[in-house]
Design brief:
heterodimer, A: alpha+beta, 10-stranded mixed sheet, elongated, B: mainly beta, 13-stranded antiparallel sheet, about 0% helix
Chain lengths: ~850, ~350
């Protein structure tokens, strides 16, 4: 019996190419989204660990200083007074202008090293193996003695278009410097090549000069074998220095981006869930369509097992084709996504350049397994369904519909239970549990969809009747009558559309919150800053005298001094914003915890800090707690006077007054300052005066408006990837609706034939079909709104809060809801066009003869 | 992929273990540096300090020591200064320098049968390494020759010695101008303190030894020296029990013959010195040793005859393996002298390791 069975299966697939093709497309899209996000994440992580390996080398530990770095002297003492191998490094970023205006150009990671100390540390720099002695060598003389001399990997040099002996300009801080390429590194192997990509290696002297860090070292690498050696080292280091394990660097970066990456993964899963529903829908449908055939086969002696195998076999074909296509598309899509992911990491966390897509087999295997597994799982229920019916009963469609109506209350109940379970899960802490809760809510909503549809159609039937007469009532009634097929389609549609609503509302609310926050926080009229070692948090150094000079200009009421610094703490580096301003200048910061009347005076006068909401979240502290930082004089406790709302960084920030800061750190320079104008002062005129007064300092000068605009551009950029995922979910939804409804209508050929034979005109058929699909779209769209809003609320109040710790005010833009409705309804209408056109054209006799 | 291989530009005395490096060095332009063209007036103690206008310079201490009980040791502590460029623009970083320093430290534990060698590099900046004439000091990190004291320690091996001047400085070659090949300027300024009574301690792991004996110091500075065909050299510094000291080097040509500029100096018990030309001595290799590390085959026993001084000497390494396992491998070790006169000394051989 296998032969004829297989043939019947193939014939079925061939007769419904649209249905089959769209199911494959659905799987492919779901898999592609998952795989591409995974690949983008993997590539970013790999690029980071390679570049940090390139910098860390074989060091076991790293000495870092406070915000002022380490003095040169620290290295000398380590070398002379301990027996640990030590290598100093100065790091920064420089930008190679692209030549084309508007393009940002290429960022190079500048690593200044002492070649004499390198041998035990960075093998790719120092050679040191027997074979390498004969290899190409870089002439040390120009590297040591020429200011601005550097080396690049041969690949990077080639990409920039440089040869040894050539020179190129880089932007660093506020100025332009010339780098002379005195040699190229020929990487020995592939991983070295990746590690060296975008790395500009210079002698430490030249690096200090280029970066404006003369006398300062960023870190000293150590190879320590025992704790005794470490305490020996600590003893000769200045009090502000901290010794960290080398792996801490990578760990910190992973920790920094963990929540971000988890959120991306969850969103990509959402696209897959949409895809799975699509598959489920397709498979249910193909079973329902063939119930007569299956009944006949069963009557002919085909066993349940064979029917089961038949349906699963078909699903396997869909799974294999869809997954294969999805893996391919995923890799292609990842090339785009990796750019977006990298961009966001650069905007939010640290400088990272990903030149190539890593395609680990693990990701592909995982994507493939998810694609095939999910498809087969989705086909399981329809396959069981196909085997369950008794041979004759299977032929009767009404039996099926009747049974579905009987189980409808149970399905609805299951939905309600899942919803409740989801809500319960959300009450537990932990990000993964939260996502489980989110998905449980989604599935629960999907199960509620059939019941809601029946309710909706029953309510709508009289309305439709009043508006469109018998055909209207038939359209609404038909949806309920063929619930076995419409329910799943509507559920799939609800999931997909509500996902786009949820993500849309979440982004919108976030944006609105950030806009309001900026209005309240950015109150100065003009902002001046020295663009720093690009990408670094700390920024460039600016003489405080420049700010004071600006304060004396006419029209200026006050200057607020700003220093950004990365300060070591027992829990790793902490980003700190140091403010030199008066109480009025602080009033823009809105406190979530702590009373302004007490917190700010303490902040100004005592060793108290105010921390941002994400910081409080990350470190589990609040107003009244103490927090320990490593100052230039050793570890000190600072009391937390308050927690303020902040959306600048999910890593968290610590606010400290300049007075307090200078008591504990010898770090006088500023990163920038802002200028408040006297009431009525002329903004443009003041900016002009500022420009001429401090123009030579390489400062960027921005008005309040311009700064806000730039900030929002960055915000939008960081959400680009989320928007792309939303779009992809929408696409899956659209395809789902298209395939489900189109199949549904095509299957009604006979029914419509009967209607035609009874005198329905082609125009009326057209009308009937499109209004029925339109109704389903409408139902799905309307159902999506509460579900979407619930998803948005979960993402805003649970997921984001637990991932990043910030308070977002939910706001719903009606346009998003309208857009979602349009998506659902438009897709549904579109799905009706082809079947309606086909039905209207087919002669009734032909339609009736088909079966 | 090697670089930073600090391509030793040292003309002659600085160990070069491979031909290719020696080859690479000759191409270097010596433009911009001072050259050793004619004899000069030496001044002490100023000339103990650096001569940065020349490309290369070294302070070379070797010696044979023993404990009261007769346990024998050899040591080498050498500091090399090498300019990587004749000049440098004004720089603001304290790390900027055109002077690189390299140091080698070895201890030969003759009776323990063990040879230890160490190497350090640093830049002549930030106080990490440097040299000065008055008061005399040359150092690389915490290895130093300072006043009359030598100190070096690494990996459980330590040397602390106090030296006395012994004989007056001996000017090598023609009044201190030591010609290394035919070409004018391929020469160094070279003086030695050939017999410096030394005492102090050697530490090997947990063991400390009170030692005394004789040390030898070579001072040399130059810009270029090796000729085209020269592949290496064998250098002898021998202290004889009859009070005479002998410095002798033979520059080897690629065809296996000794270069005509090979020469030596015989120093009498009271410090009077006599120049020896190539024709004044006969050097014959009587034994060889193959390094298990590099595969290089070094001479390991010589017969040296200087008829005009009534010397017929057998020279043998006190340990066969005194090859320095450093960036550029060479053999430098303590030797025993027997024959018409007995004594101790140090021998250096370069250009054998491929």
């Amino acid at each position: 019996m296998i032969g004829p069975l297989l043939r019947s299966s193939i014939r079925h697939l061939l007769r419904h190419p649209w249905q089959f093709g769209l199911a494959v497309l659905g799987v492919a899209l779901g898999v592609a989204v998952i795989v591409s996000i995974d690949l983008a994440n993997a590539s970013a992580t790999r690029a980071f660990s390679l570049s940090s390996e390139a910098v860390t080398g074989r060091a076991t530990h790293q000495v870092i200083g406070g915000p002022e770095g380490l003095p040169d002297e620290a290295f000398r003492r380590l070398v002379l007074e301990t027996d640990l191998p030590a290598a100093p490094a100065v790091e920064g970023y420089v930008r190679v202008p692209s030549g084309k205006s508007g393009k940002p150009g290429r960022m190079l990671h500048l690593l200044g090293i002492d070649p004499f100390s390198e041998r035990p540390f960075r093998p790719y720099l120092s050679g040191g193996t027997e074979a390498s002695r004969e290899g190409s060598s870089i002439d040390l003389a120009p590297l040591l003695t020429r200011p601005g001399a550097g080396v690049l990997s041969a690949t990077t040099a080639g990409e920039i278009g440089l040869k040894t002996g050539g020179s190129f300009s880089v932007r660093v801080g506020g100025g332009v410097r010339t780098i002379e390429l005195v040699g190229v590194l020929e990487p020995a192997d592939e991983s070295t090549r990746s590690a060296l990509s975008d790395l500009l290696v210079m002698d430490i002297a030249a690096a200090q000069e280029i970066l404006g860090r003369v006398g300062r070292i960023d870190h000293i690498d150590l190879i320590a074998e025992s704790d005794a050696q470490l305490s020996q080292a600590q003893a000769v280091l200045p009090a502000g220095a901290q010794i960290l394990r080398s792996s801490a660097r990578t760990e910190t970066s992973e920790e920094m981006t963990k929540a971000f990456r988890l959120n991306l993964t969850a969103l990509s899963l959402l696209a897959l869930v949409c895809g799975v529903f699509l598959i489920y829908n397709t498979m249910v449908f193909s079973v329902v369509q063939r119930r007569t055939l299956i009944g006949t086969l069963r009557a002919l002696g085909v066993t349940r097992g064979q029917v089961f195998a038949l349906v699963l076999g078909e699903a396997a074909v869909v799974a294999l084709l869809g997954t294969a296509a999805g893996l391919g598309a995923g890799v292609l899509l990842a090339r785009e996504l990796v750019r977006l992911v990298t961009q966001t990491i650069n905007d939010l966390y640290f400088v990272l350049s990903v030149r190539e897509l890593a395609v680990p087999a693990g990701v592909l295997i995982k994507g493939g397994a998810i694609g095939i597994g999910a498809t087969l799982a989705a086909a399981l229920a329809p396959a069981i369904e196909a085997t369950r019916a008794a041979p004759r009963a299977a032929q009767i469609r009404s039996a099926l519909e009747a049974r579905l109506r009987r189980v409808l209350p149970r399905v609805t109940l299951a939905g309600a239970v899942l919803l409740a379970a989801g809500a319960g899960l959300l009450a537990f802490p932990g990000l993964v549990v939260s996502f489980a809760g989110l998905f449980s809510v989604i599935l629960g909503s999907a199960l509620l969809a059939p019941g809601a549809t029946v309710l909706f159609m029953n309510l709508l039937r009289p309305v439709m009747g009043a508006m469109f007469g018998i055909l209207g009532r038939m359209a609404a009634g038909g949806v309920v009558a063929s619930l076995s097929r419409t329910a799943v389609a509507i559920a799939a549609l609800v999931i997909a559309v509500s996902a786009t609503i949820g993500i849309g509302v979440m982004i919108d609310s976030f944006r609105g919150t950030v806009v309001r926050w900026m209005e309240s926080t950015l109150r100065s009229d003009v902002y001046l800053a020295r663009p720093g070692r690009a990408g670094g948090f700390s920024g460039g150094d600016l003489d405080p005298e420049v700010a004071l000079r600006s304060g004396r200009l006419p029209g200026v009421e006050r200057v607020n001094l700003l220093r950004r610094a990365e300060v070591p703490s027992p829990d790793g580096p902490v980003r700190m914003v140091v403010l030199g301003t008066d109480l009025a200048g602080l009033s823009g910061y809105e406190l979530k915890e702590g009373r302004p009347g007490e917190a700010w005076p303490a902040f100004q006068e005592r060793d108290a800090v105010v921390v941002s909401e994400p910081f409080a979240h990350r470190h589990g502290i609040g107003a009244g707690d103490v927090f320990r930082l490593r100052t230039a004089k050793g570890e000190r406790d600072f009391s937390v006077a308050g927690v303020y709302y902040d959306y600048a960084s999910d890593l968290g920030l610590v606010l400290m007054s300049r007075k307090t800061y200078l008591r504990h750190w010898r770090d006088r320079p500023l990163t920038g300052f802002s200028v408040d104008l006297e009431p009525g002062a002329d903004l443009e005129g003041t900016i002009r005066r500022l420009r001429s007064a401090v123009g030579g300092e390489g400062l960027s000068i921005q008005s309040n408006q311009a700064l806000k605009k730039i900030s929002m551009e960055i915000f939008d950029r960081t959400f680009q990837i989320t928007s792309v995922l939303r779009l992809l979910s929408g696409l899956v939804a659209f395809i789902g609706v298209l395939s489900a409804l189109m199949a549904l209508q095509l299957e009604r050929a006979r029914e419509l034939g009967v209607l035609r034979a009874n005198g329905l005109t082609p125009g009326q058929v057209w009308h009937l079909v499109t209004s029925q699909t339109g109704l389903m779209g409408l139902a799905a769209g309307l159902l999506s709104i509460p579900v979407g809003l619930a998803l948005a609320a979960i993402m805003i109040f649970v997921i984001n809060r637990r991932s990043f710790g910030w308070t977002i005010r939910m706001e719903v833009d009606p346009m998003i809801l309208l857009g979602a409705m349009t998506l659902a309804w438009g897709a549904a209408l579109l799905a009706g066009i082809y079947p309606a056109w086909k039905m209207a054209r087919t002669s009734p006799a032909l339609a009736l003869r088909e079966e | 992929m090697s670089f930073w291989s600090f391509a030793c530009r040292e003309p002659d005395h600085l160990p070069q273990a491979s031909l290719s490096v020696a080859g690479a060095l000759r191409g270097e332009s010596s433009a911009g540096y001072a050259r050793a063209i004619e004899p000069r007036e030496f001044r002490f103690p100023e000339d103990h300090g650096p001569h940065p206008e020349f490309r290369t310079e070294w302070w070379y201490y070797t010696g044979n020591l023993s404990t009261r009980e007769g346990r024998r040791f050899g040591f080498q502590l050498t500091f090399f200064r090498s300019a990587v460029a004749p000049s440098m623009p004004e720089r603001s970083s304290n790390w900027a320098t055109r002077q690189a320093y390299l140091a080698h430290f070895t201890v030969s534990d003759i009776d323990g049968g063990r040879f230890r060698s160490f190497e350090r590099w640093s830049r002549g900046a930030l106080g990490l390494a440097g040299s000065q004439g008055e008061p005399f000091r040359v150092w690389l990190e915490d290895w130093s020759a300072e006043g009359d004291r030598l100190h070096a320690a690494e990996d459980g091996v330590a040397l602390d010695l106090t030296l006395q001047p012994g004989k007056l400085p001996v000017l090598q070659g023609e009044r201190g101008l030591s010609q290394k090949s035919e070409e004018p300027g391929n020469a160094s300024y070279y003086y030695s303190l050939t017999r410096m009574p030394a005492s102090g301690t050697i530490r090997l792991g947990d063991e400390r030894f009170e030692v005394s004996g004789l040390a030898w110091m070579d001072r040399e500075w130059s810009t270029s020296s090796l000729g085209k065909d020269q592949v290496g050299w064998d250098w002898f510094a021998l202290q004889l029990e009859d009070g005479r000291d002998l410095m002798l080097y033979q520059l080897r040509r690629s065809d296996g013959t000794a270069d005509a500029t090979s020469n030596g100096t015989l120093v009498g018990p009271n410090g009077e010195s006599r120049h020896l030309g190539l024709s004044d001595f006969e050097l014959e290799v009587v034994n060889r040793w193959e390094s298990p590390r590099s595969g290089a085959v070094y001479p390991a026993g010589w017969r040296l005859r200087i008829p005009s001084a009534d010397l017929d000497l057998r020279i043998e390494p006190l340990l066969p393996d005194q090859e320095l396992d450093v960036s550029f491998r060479y053999w430098e070790g303590a030797v025993r002298v027997e024959g018409t006169s007995r004594g101790r000394g140090y021998v250096e051989m370069t250009g054998y390791s491929k």
